[in-house]
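Ops channel
N.P.: pipeline sanity check, posting one input/output pair.
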């Protein structure tokens, strides 16, 4: 239940593999136009280790501060080593064309100036939606065992509008801070809000509204390594994490890359290139070749830190990339979410029309499981 305005988005990538195919594809790469990056607390622009250029925010109020310590695990000093610190509510306004955007907030918990890391506690709102409430970046970083945190949201900006991002300390004893803000316009059909999404464990599909805001919870490259923002397709700068830390127990299955003679085909009848890069569709994890063994176990990913009370959209990106799986009925499997059937008899070759042809089904769920493929 609970159609919260903020719909958490859980991106889960499952790549299954099979046969051949050819055809070079047209790159639908969006222009980098319209992208905004702010290195908060910096007075001049700077380039991060991925080559992204970040502007300073000297015109903002709040206090510009340097982090007190550079954690060796920081991937890049920009935008993390400077912050904008707010004792009271502050709103950034960014001009953005109407449509969906990714809004990413970058946080590096540290002491800033005379404020200790432990006193940071704040909320963030944008587009009329609460994105973070009583956010304790230190606590979150400790829980995730990370030095820095990126929170990614997808918002639909209404016509002739701007994105207003508001930081509010939780009390007068607390403060808000932010190290970086990134806005990346997204293709309008990156996911389809016009079609209701099947709801796992329930007969009725879940309608998605055009103005629904999403938070990305997980985006995994199954069977492959992490994909850094600079290696994402269409300059969307998404991060795709490796999936192996999330696999339950010893049932790891078999991870593999595409056969060398398989070409991943993007195009009108399958997924567009911006759906996911080749490094995502070109790796997969299967249960292995032995049917009798596979009947005796489930290949399961466990995704922790999911809050109850929200709907979660689960998207599975599928592409058969492994010989000899070239025909329907050779590799068929069921998908369960939280022990409930989300999808019966998935046959990627049949869905995609052949080896190397992608399919990105969508699924939704509340506190329980998801549904089944769309487009
Ligand atoms: C913010 O609050 C802290 C703690 O109360 C105080 O030391 C600091 O001077 C304040 N900064 C500004 C700019 O008001
Ligand atoms: C934030 O979390 C850290 C780590 O758990 C804790 O030490 C700190 O007191 C918390 N701060 C607030 C304001 O709750
Ligand atoms: C954004 O919302 C408007 C109406 O509010 C809708 O017409 C449009 O299709 C939405 N855009 C996307 C990409 O969902
Ligand atoms: C591609 O390679 C596989 C072996 O890895 C082979 O079985 C298959 O016939 C090859 N397909 C084409 C079209 O060359
Ligand atoms: C799924 O079922 C197993 C076995 O009954 C149980 O241990 C597990 O907690 C269930 N998982 C969920 C998410 O309900
Ligand atoms: C796999 O998971 C499903 C859903 O929880 C369950 O019904 C089935 O018994 C499991 N199979 C095995 C072999 O554990």
């Amino acid at each position: 239940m609970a159609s919260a305005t903020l719909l958490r988005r859980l991106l889960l990538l499952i790549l299954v593999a099979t046969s051949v195919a050819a055809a070079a594809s047209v790159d639908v790469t969006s222009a980098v136009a319209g992208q905004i990056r702010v290195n908060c607390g910096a007075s001049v622009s700077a380039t991060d280790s991925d080559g992204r250029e970040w502007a300073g925010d000297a015109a903002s109020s709040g206090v510009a501060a340097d982090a007190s310590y550079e954690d060796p695990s920081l991937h890049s000093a920009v935008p993390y080593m400077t912050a904008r610190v707010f004792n009271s509510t502050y709103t950034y306004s960014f001009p953005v064309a109407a449509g969906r955007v990714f809004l990413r907030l970058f946080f590096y918990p540290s002491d800033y100036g005379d404020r200790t890391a432990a006193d940071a506690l704040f909320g963030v709102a944008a587009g009329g939606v609460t994105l973070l409430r009583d956010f304790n970046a230190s606590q979150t970083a400790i829980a995730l065992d990370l030095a820095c945190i990126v929170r990614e949201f997808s918002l639909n900006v209404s016509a002739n509008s701007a994105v207003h991002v508001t930081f509010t300390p939780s009390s007068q004893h607390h403060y808000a801070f932010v190290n970086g803000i990134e806005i990346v316009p997204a293709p309008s059909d990156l996911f389809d809000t016009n079609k209701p999404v099947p709801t796992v464990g329930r007969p009725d599909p879940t309608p998605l509204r055009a103005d629904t805001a999403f938070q990305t919870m997980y985006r995994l490259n199954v069977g492959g390594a992490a994909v850094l923002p600079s290696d994402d397709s269409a300059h969307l700068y998404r991060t795709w994490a490796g999936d192996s830390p999330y696999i339950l127990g010893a049932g790891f299955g078999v991870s593999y890359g595409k056969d060398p003679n398989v070409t991943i085909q993007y195009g009108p009848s399958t997924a567009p290139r911006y759906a996911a890069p080749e490094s995502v569709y070109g790796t997969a994890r299967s249960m292995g070749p032995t049917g009798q063994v596979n009947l005796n176990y489930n290949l399961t990913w466990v995704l922790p830190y999911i809050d109850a009370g929200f709907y979660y959209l689960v998207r599975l990106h599928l592409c058969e990339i492994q010989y000899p799986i070239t025909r329907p009925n050779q590799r068929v499997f069921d998908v369960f979410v939280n022990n409930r059937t989300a999808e019966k008899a998935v046959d990627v070759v049949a869905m995609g029309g052949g080896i190397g042809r992608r399919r990105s089904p969508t699924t939704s769920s509340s506190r329980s499981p998801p549904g089944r493929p769309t487009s």
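N.P.: looks fine end to end. The chain is about 5% helix and 30% strand.
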